[in-house]
């Protein structure tokens, strides 16, 4: 493996776990949300959605994925909807990529994200729940490994990920 791609729903802790893993492996860390934001020139993901609509953000995700295509020794944390974008996901998939799904129940995500206003697709909890349900299969289908992170802090989740990678003989 020369690239670890973290997938999962909003609030699963992909970015925090990714940063911690990158420190542990001494690999580079990238976050597709951060990259999409930089490419947009906007100040927040809310601004991108509100000014230009979701599709514009999805296009930026494809550009972010493409920009990271050649990276090796990299931990890449993706936005929750990145997997729904085949073109974006294809850019990151290579024979040496491990896709790891950080799975957290919707009930826990709802608690974790209570009061958080940075995610346009979590403004309406009922819609977010539907979105969660509609994506579960895609997360599972892409996953080389699944780590259940209910009740785990990002740092504990990152330890669990290292164990799963070792058990799967991926590292
Ligand atoms: C989104 C998830 C967000 C961000 C954007 C859309 C989604 O990333 O990409 O708000 O469609 O699930 P996080 O998963 O890092 O919150």
| SS-derived structural category | alpha/beta
Strands of the widest sheet, in order across it, are: 2-3-1-4-5
Give helix % range: 40-55%
What is the number of E strands?
5
What oligomerization state is this entry in?
single chain
Which strand-content bin applies to the residues? Answer: 5-15%
Distance between the termini: 7 Å
Summarize the main sheet. Answer: 5 strands, parallel
Q: Helix-strand pattern, N to C?
A: EHEHHHEHEHHEH
- Small-molecule components bound: shikimate-3-phosphate
Low-confidence stretches: none
Q: Quote the average pLDDT.
A: 97
> How many DSSP helices?
8
Radius of gyration, Cα only, in angstroms?
15 Å
Q: Indicate the overall shape.
A: globular
Can you put this structure into words, describing what you see?
The protein is an alpha/beta fold and 171 residues long. It is 53% helix and 14% strand. Helix 1 packs across helix 8 and helix 4 runs parallel beside helix 5. It is globular. The protein starts with a strand and ends with a helix.
Give the SSE map.
Elements: E1 3-7, H1 14-25, E2 28-31, H2 32-40, H3 45-52, H4 54-68, E3 74-77, H5 86-92, E4 97-103, H6 106-112, H7 125-142, E5 145-148, H8 154-167
Parallel strand pairs: 1-3, 1-4, 2-3, 4-5
The structure holds shikimate-3-phosphate (S3P).
């Amino acid at each position: 493996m020369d690239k670890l791609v973290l997938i999962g729903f909003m609030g699963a802790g992909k970015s925090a776990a990714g940063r911690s893993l990158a420190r542990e492996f001494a690999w580079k860390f990238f976050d597709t949300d951060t990259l999409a934001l930089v490419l947009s020139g906007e100040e927040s993901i809310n601004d991108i959605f509100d000014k230009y609509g979701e599709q514009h953000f999805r296009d930026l995700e494809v550009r972010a994925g493409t920009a990271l295509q050649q990276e090796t020794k990299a931990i890449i944390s993706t936005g929750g909807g990145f997997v729904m974008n085949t073109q974006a996901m294809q850019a990151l998939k290579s024979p040496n990529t491990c896709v790891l799904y950080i799975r957290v129940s919707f009930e826990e995500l709802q608690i974790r994200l209570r009061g958080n206003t940075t995610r346009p697709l979590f403004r309406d909890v009922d819609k977010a729940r539907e979105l969660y349900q509609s994506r579960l299969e895609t997360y599972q289908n892409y996953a080389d490994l699944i780590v259940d992170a209910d009740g785990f802090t990002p740092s504990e989740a990152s330890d669990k990920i290292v164990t799963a990678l070792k058990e799967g003989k991926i590292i």
